[in-house]
Task: inverse folding
């Protein structure tokens, strides 16, 4: 009996040991399977990250290629223009033609001279070649000079049309068909009406994320192109390091939900004095994977905007459409600007771009009105957190002439006034907002 009990007990113990060993081996196998699955997941994650990095690198290479191509074309155009001699054409002053008709009593002066009016540059000046100008003078071409009056009504900066020291207005009775008029701006009145300083100081960001203390800051200059953003970024980049730590030039149509840190940018490839002609590193995007900016006052996001019609005439093409992440399609079927204006579809996305950067975000966006910067440089310096003394070093304002004459001379209908009219129908709805916005505002 005792022997039987011993055998039974031994069998039970052996069975329990076997069950324990079996359970242990199953647990070990499950643990190994879990580790294997985790390793596979990590490998898949790394592979996805590698593919994403490769795609981003390829996109950056494509952007750089487009930028190089655009720069090459621009330099070629500049070289061609330098070889073209200045036009000998100079408009002649109006000389009344003798007539046998019944003499008419001279009409009283339309307006008295306005000494406070100042010149401003415009792309419509009647030159036959696309060269830089600092004034806005137009040929009337008809007795009423309706062309110049209409352009003045549309241009953001024009306040008066002046001929022979007197202002003319619609309904005058002078024959100006052979006259040249000047489109002028009333700087004194505009400065008095500008609300930049008040909007800055009443902004919720003033004194916290927007301080006036001088320190090395990172500047991110954003635009939809053709707005002077390269000029502004280039000027900031040449400032001493005690003012500008890093400067970026973006055409990103989507401001990020959270402002995140950016790696150091590449160095400009040239130190040419004309910031519009130099190749400034641009075309980049805001980051989504880096850590959020700890002190918003260390950064300035600057959105500089301009009349979209003038911007498009200045900067348009398939490569720029890709920079803006627009509805570009394939390059072979991308339209020329004159065809684009006739189609009336905002494939470049300028309307949404403007709305995005003039809408409130979780960080301040300093909106700069290109048309009013030069009359309010002190407010601009204050918004940028720079000393007022730097205002005198701000680049001089110029425009490159593009009109019917250059369109005919260069066989490029993108410059024509008909193209401008088509673009105006497409983008006119934000022009009134641009006209009303001061030199500096904060979204």
Result:
């Amino acid at each position: 009996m005792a022997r039987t009990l011993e055998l039974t007990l031994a069998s039970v113990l052996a069975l329990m040991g076997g069950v324990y060993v079996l359970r242990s081996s199953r647990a070990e196998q499950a643990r190994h399977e879990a580790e294997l699955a985790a390793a596979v997941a990590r490998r898949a994650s790394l592979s996805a990250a590698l593919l994403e990095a490769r795609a981003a690198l390829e996109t950056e290479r494509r952007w750089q290629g487009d930028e190089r191509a655009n720069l090459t074309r621009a330099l070629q155009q500049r070289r061609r223009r330098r070889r073209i001699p200045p036009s000998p054409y100079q408009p002649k002053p109006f000389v009344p033609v003798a007539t046998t008709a019944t003499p008419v009593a001279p009409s009283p002066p339309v307006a008295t001279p306005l000494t406070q009016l100042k010149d401003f540059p415009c792309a419509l000046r009647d030159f036959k070649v696309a060269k830089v100008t600092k004034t806005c003078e137009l040929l009337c071409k008809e007795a009423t000079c309706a062309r110049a009056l209409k352009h003045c009504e549309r241009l953001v900066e024009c306040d008066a049309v002046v001929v022979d020291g007197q202002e003319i207005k619609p309904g005058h009775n002078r024959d100006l068909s052979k006259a040249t008029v000047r489109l002028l701006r009333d700087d004194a009145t505009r400065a008095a009406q500008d609300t930049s300083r008040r909007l800055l100081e009443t902004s919720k960001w003033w004194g916290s994320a927007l301080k006036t203390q001088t320190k090395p800051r990172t500047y991110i200059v954003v635009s939809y192109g053709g707005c002077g953003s390269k000029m502004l970024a280039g000027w900031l980049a040449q400032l001493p390091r005690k003012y500008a730590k890093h400067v970026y030039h973006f055409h990103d149509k989507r401001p990020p939900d959270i402002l995140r840190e950016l790696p150091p940018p590449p160095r400009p490839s040239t130190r040419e004095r004309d910031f519009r002609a130099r190749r400034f590193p641009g075309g980049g995007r805001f980051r989504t994977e880096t850590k959020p900016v700890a002190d918003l006052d260390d950064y300035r996001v600057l959105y500089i905007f301009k009349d979209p019609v003038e911007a498009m005439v200045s900067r348009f093409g398939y490569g720029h459409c890709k920079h803006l992440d627009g509805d570009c399609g394939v390059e072979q079927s991308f339209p020329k600007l004159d065809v684009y204006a006739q189609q009336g579809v905002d494939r470049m996305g300028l309307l949404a771009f403007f709305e995005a950067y003039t809408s409130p975000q979780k960080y301040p966006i300093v909106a700069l009105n290109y048309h009013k910067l030069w009359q309010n440089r002190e407010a601009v310096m204050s918004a940028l957190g720079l000393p007022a003394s730097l205002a005198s070093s701000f680049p001089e304002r110029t425009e490159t002439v593009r009109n019917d004459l250059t369109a005919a001379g260069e066989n490029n209908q993108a410059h024509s006034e008909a193209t401008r009219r088509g673009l105006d129908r497409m983008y006119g709805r934000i022009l009134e907002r641009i006209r009303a916005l001061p030199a500096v505002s904060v979204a």
Notes: DSSP finds twelve helices and 13 strands in the chain. Confidence is low (pLDDT under 50) at residues 86-101, 107-113.
